[in-house]
Design a protein that fits this description.
Distance between the termini: 34 Å
Helix content: 25-40%
Number of strands: 7
Largest sheet: 7 strands, mixed
Strand order of the largest sheet: 1-2-3-4-5-7-6
Mean pLDDT: 93
Strand content: 25-35%
Shape: globular
Low-confidence stretches: none
Radius of gyration: 15 Å
Structural class: alpha+beta
Order of helices and strands: EHHHEEEHEHEE
Number of helices: 5
Length: 159
């Protein structure tokens, strides 16, 4: 498994990974109408390309398969963070989160924060994130539950 930075040529595979993960993994915690609103079939590839390029986006790659991706914004926000439906629970999320945290520390960021889905909340809790609040967000007329979470990542002082 290789972790690398996002390249424009990854966009279509990332969009498909996002769609498939939401529709085949997150569906166990959300309704069909909710996942359709969250990850619609009519995705604007150009908007995704711009969004992915505007952040520190990392890709987990196994051969020619993108097994996961995660985005870090300059303020410590982890935006999209998804693992391929066929690569769940294999350590890919941990590898991506480790890379994101390392990048954040290099940038002098002291706190990571995200809005985790019901499905992703246990992963983030396992990795030291604390739930700040439960939220209800609206996507294309559907209300979805997620959780505002954060983690302090201050480097320990040298002894």
């Amino acid at each position: 498994m290789k972790i690398r930075t996002y390249e424009i040529r990854d966009t279509e595979k990332i969009v498909k990974l996002f769609y498939d993960t939401v529709h085949e993994v997150n569906i166990r915690d959300y309704t069909t109408a909710q996942v359709d609103a969250w990850a619609p079939a009519d995705t604007d590839i150009q908007k995704w390309m711009q969004s992915l390029s505007s952040k520190f986006t990392f890709v987990a790659e196994e051969g020619d398969i993108i097994a996961g991706f995660g985005e870090l914004e300059a303020n410590g926000h982890i935006d999209r963070f998804y693992c391929h439906k066929n690569f769940q629970r294999q350590g890919i999320g941990t590898l991506l989160l480790t890379q994101i945290q390392s990048q954040a520390q290099d940038l002098g960021i002291n706190k990571l924060f995200t809005e985790a889905s019901i499905t992703a909340r246990p992963f983030f809790e396992t990795h030291g994130f604390m739930m700040i609040r439960k939220q209800e967000v609206e996507r294309r007329g559907q209300k979805l539950i997620n959780f505002a979470m954060e983690k302090n990542i201050n480097k320990p002082p040298f002894v």
